[in-house]
Structure of Glycine C-acetyltransferase:
Amino acid sequence: MSDIANAYIPPAALTGSMRDFRVPGGADLLRRTEGFFKWQNLRRENGLWPFSRATEEGPSTVCWAQDDSGNKMRGVNFASQDYLSLSSHSGIKSTAKETIERFGVHSAGSPALVGNTSYSVALERKIADFLKMEEVVLYPTGWAAGFGVIKGLVRSADHVVMDMLSHSCLQEGANAATNNIHLFRHLDNEYCRDILTKIRSKDKENGILVVTEGLFSMDSDTPDLAALQALCHEFNATLVVDVAHDLGCLGDEGRGHIGIQNMLGKVDIVMGSFSKTFASNGGFVACKSRAVKEYLRFYSAPATFSNALSPVQAATILKAFEIVDSPEGRAQRSALMSNVLSLRHQLREAGLDYYGDPSAIVCVKMGTEGVARLVSQRLPELGLIANLVEFPAVPKGAARIRMQVMANHSEQNIADAVRMLKTARRQAELQFEDINQPASVAASVAA
Ligand SMILES: Cc1ncc(COP(=O)(O)O)c(C=O)c1O
């Protein structure tokens, strides 16, 4: 074990959270960032800041990476979002190269002007058909699509009713659009019904956007979409479902939970990202009318005032959709699901528990932030690259190591990862107990 994993750890590096610095006090906007930096640095100096890492050879199943102090690590990679392993697919790479030859590398304009290319137009059509929707608007990122669809449609007198665990892009979009935000308990459609009933008892004039995800990225669970859509119809509300993590990679046909739940073409609005399965940055909103599409094009700022997807991105994503929609895509999904089931099985055998239903996201329960940070500190040296997730991204005391599975992971990769996680967990628990002994707390206070 390295020196850092054996060294004395100041308790402050194992406690606190990013939430503590979200509203810093003081009139100097720049100086007041320093509290966060100090806390972050304490963690960094103790090897407990596993964020902002960079890979050295793309998101492959085994790769070199470095942390934000420049420390290099090589390991089995369960930290990248490339669920069908398409980012290194030869067809994707050759499409990108050919597109560069024809179009260069830049879109040089927003989609509202002349930023789109023939690839973007073909991609819009492909996604609309894939989802049995009528129209699609492309966005520069998935985040921009989530933010943009809410900010584009909702005005200050309207209401947003959202699953309390909805992604940051959806929450930020809602906050930017209206003060009338109502969160409902995760996946709880009855709770949602109560909120809709209350809103409509007072307000029949304004709009209601109900927001959820096809697959939640920290819990790997899914709402009953048919029931939620029916609820929206009942209360004259509109449903938007974010399918960032399930589209393309889940379900026999790759249509995610919308397909699995037989809801293709039946959800009011589908919003997604290309960055998990479709080998590129970018996002989209799919809707059922040209009117909605045209409105979003000109009133959803990231689709109007931000540069369009580059021709390379649009062509790459189009190729990725073709693969996803082919026998090869089906084979990759099946390889992904065998890996997921194998990982879950081996974790359980190793006494490690995880959240949710089978999907490319396998979040392993760690409990307190202190233990989770010590686990994550050990992983690079053992040879595992996996992400730490802690409060406020998830509830306090429910920290986890998020493993994101790819179709090209091997059985050996999975077995190695489980072995390393088990070792790290055992060592971290012992160290955490040690740190929390009264004697060492007293020593740390004295120090
Ligand atoms: C549920 C969800 N929606 C949207 C996004 C944003 O997508 P992108 O990374 O393409 O901006 C993410 C990314 O993590 C996500 O998890």
Q: What stands out?
A: The chain is about 45% helix and 15% strand. The mean pLDDT is 95. The two ends are 25 Å apart (CA to CA).
